[in-house]
Write a structure and sequence with these properties.
Distance between the termini: 26 Å
CATH topology of the domain at 168-260: D-Amino Acid Oxidase, Chain A, domain 2
Radius of gyration: 21 Å
Number of helices: 13
Bound molecules: flavin-adenine dinucleotide
Shape: globular
Strand content: 15-25%
C-alpha cells in the first residue's frame, strides 16, 4: 500500500509495531504476486536477494507412495514473464518490502504501535499511536488497517466474524536435513495429506538447507491428542508415509510456533475514511498459499480507490466501496475452491489429473481469482460432488466430508 500510494504522489505514513526483521508464518507464494512486484518495482529485489524459486506444487496422499504435481509453466499468465514464484523467509521479505516502500517515499515508523483508529462521527480521522511510553494522535484523511491477524479496526468496530466451518490450528518450525524430493520437485511446495479432519502438512524450502514444516488440522485434533507441541507434531508426521520418509533425517533449528483462530472475515472492508487490507480484512484457510497474494492485491485495489478519493477530496464509503466488491469477488473464489477441496479430497487429485480441468485448476492455483465472473471448473467440481452424493456405491462416496457447499454459511459470532 505504501508503495502504490507513494508512486501516486500521495503522502503516507506506515506505523509498524514490530521492529523488522521479525519472524512470520506464510512463506510460500503464488505466481500472481509477481504482477504486483512488477508494478511497484520490487521484482529486481526479489531476484537479487536469491529467494528460493518455486516452480510448482506437489500433493501426497496419506497411504500411497508417489505424488500428483503441477508446474506453473503449463499455463502462461498475462503480464507475467516468469514461470516461477518464490518461497521466502518472511523476516527478510517483509523487511525488504518495508524498505522498498520507504525508498519510494513512505514515512516508516517501526516499533510504534497503533492503539486505536480515531473517529469523528462515522469518519475515520486518524490514529492514536504509542511509542516509548508516549501516546500521540496523528490525523489522516484515510486510515488503512493493515494490522494482519491483529485486525485492529475490525475488533474496534465489532465487525469481525468467525468462519463457521474452519477452526484450524498450525504447529510449525524450520528444519535442516529434510529430503525435499526428486524428479524436479525439490523446489515445489509439498503438501502431505493427513488422515484426520482437514489435516495436512506443508513443506516449504526457505534456503538451500532450511525447510519450513507445518502441521495443520482442526484445533480439536490438537486438544484430543493431549500432547505437547513436539509430541503432537511428530505423531502427525508418522501418519503419512511420504512425509515420514522426508523427515527421517530432519533436525529442528528453531522453536515450534503455533497459529490458531485464523479463519474469519470482517462484515465490511471499507467505510467512511477507512479501508482494511490483507488479513485485517479477511483470512481464508492457507492450503493454497493465497494469503500474501490476497494482501498484495488488496493493497493494489484499495490504493486505486484511494487515488480517486484523494483526487476528488471525497473520502466517503461510497468512493472506497468498489475496492471491497473487487476483493470479495476474488477471496470468495479462493474460499469456494477451498471448501470444495475439503468436501472431497480425491476430487482435487482427479481434477488435477484430468486433461479437461487441469489448466483451469492450475489457473486458480496461480492466484488468478480477480475480475472473473463464472469459474467453470468450480461448477464442474460442484456437479461432480452432487453426482457422488446421489450415486449409491460411488467409489468416492465414503470420502465425502460434512463441509457445507451449497449455500455460503453465515459468518458466526464475533471473533476475539
Ligand atoms: C498457518 C498459516 C500458514 C500460512 N501459509 C501461507 C503461505 O504459505 N503462503 C501465503 O501466501 N500465506 C500464508 N499464510 C497467510 C499469510 O501469513 C498472511 O495472509 C499474510 O502474512 C498477510 O499479510 P498482511 O500484510 O495482511 O499481515 P501481516 O503480514 O501479518 O502484517 C501485519 C503487520 O502489522 C503489524 N501490526 C499489527 N498490529 C499492529 C498495530 N496495532 N500497530 C502497528 N502495527 C501493527 C504487525 O507487526 C505486522 O508486521 C499462512 C497463514 C497461516 C495462519
Amino acid at each position: 500500500m505504501g508503495c502504490y500510494l507513494s508512486m501516486a504522489g500521495i503522502e503516507n505514513i506506515i506505523f509498524e509495531s514490530a521492529n523488522h526483521p521479525r519472524p512470520h508464518v506464510g512463506e510460500s507464494m503464488v505466481t500472481s504476486s509477481t504482477r504486483v512486484f512488477k508494478e511497484i518495482g520490487f521484482l529486481p529485489t526479489m531476484e537479487r536477494e536469491g529467494f528460493v524459486k518455486k516452480y510448482g506444487a506437489s500433493w501426497h496422499a496419506p497411504a500411497n507412495r508417489g505424488r500428483v504435481a503441477i508446474e506453473f509453466n503449463e499455463f502462461p499468465q498475462e503480464g507475467i514473464d516468469q514461470d516461477y514464484t518464490y518461497h521466502v523467509d518472511r523476516g527478510k521479505f517483509d523487511n525488504l518490502l518495508l524498505k522498498h516502500a520507504e525508498a519510494l517515499g513512505s514515512t516508516v515508523y517501526q516499533g510504534v504501535h497503533v492503539k486505536q483508529v480515531l473517529f469523528e462521527g462515522s469518519y475515520a480521522k486518524g490514529v492514536r499511536v504509542a511509542f516509548a511510553g508516549h501516546t500521540v494522535d496523528v490525523p489522516a484523511d484515510i486510515v488503512v488497517d493493515a494490522t494482519g491477524r491483529q485486525t485492529l479496526l475490525g475488533r474496534q468496530l465489532g465487525v469481525k466474524k468467525k468462519d463457521p466451518i474452519f477452526n484450524q490450528y498450525a504447529v510449525h518450525a524450520w528444519f535442516t536435513g529434510v529430503d525435499r524430493g526428486t524428479g524436479g520437485s525439490a523446489d515445489h511446495i509439498h503438501i502431505y495429506f493427513l488422515p484426520v479432519e482437514r489435516g495436512w502438512v506443508w513443506q516449504i524450502p526457505i534456503t538451500d538447507t532450511i525447510t519450513s514444516m507445518g502441521v495443520v488440522a482442526e484445533k480439536e485434533e490438537f486438544k484430543k491428542a493431549n500432547k505437547d507441541l513436539e509430541g503432537y507434531f511428530y505423531a502427525q508426521v508418522q501418519t503419512n508415509q511420504n512425509l515420514k520418509d522426508a523427515m527421517q533425517n530432519a533436525v529442528r533449528v528453531n522453536e515450534f510456533r503455533t497459529e490458531g483462530d485464523y479463519s474469519y472475515s470482517m462484515t465490511t472492508f471499507a467505510g467512511d475514511g477507512y479501508v482494511m487490507i490483507g488479513d485485517a480484512a479477511r483470512f481464508v484457510d492457507p492450503i493454497f498459499s493465497s494469503g500474501v497474494s490476497v494482501a498484495l492485491y488488496s493493497a493494489k485495489y484499495a490504493s486505486d480507490q484511494i487515488k480517486i478519493a484523494v483526487q476528488e477530496q471525497n473520502f466517503s464509503e461510497e468512493i472506497l466501496k468498489p475496492y471491497e466488491v473487487k476483493l470479495r469477488g476474488g477471496v470468495e473464489i479462493w474460499y469456494e475452491f477451498i471448501r470444495l477441496y475439503y468436501k472431497l479430497l480425491p476430487l482435487f487429485t482427479y481434477f488435477i489429473q484430468n486433461k479437461q480441468h487441469r489448466l483451469q485448476v492450475l489457473q486458480l492455483l496461480q492466484g488468478e481469482v480477480y475480475n472473473r465472473g463464472e469459474v467453470p471448473v468450480l461448477k464442474a467440481m460442484r456437479d461432480f460432488i452432487e453426482k457422488v452424493e446421489k450415486t449409491d456405491n460411488h467409489l468416492f462416496k465414503g470420502q465425502l466430508t460434512e463441509i457445507p457447499i451449497d449455500d455460503l454459511p453465515e459468518l458466526i459470532g464475533v471473533a476475539d
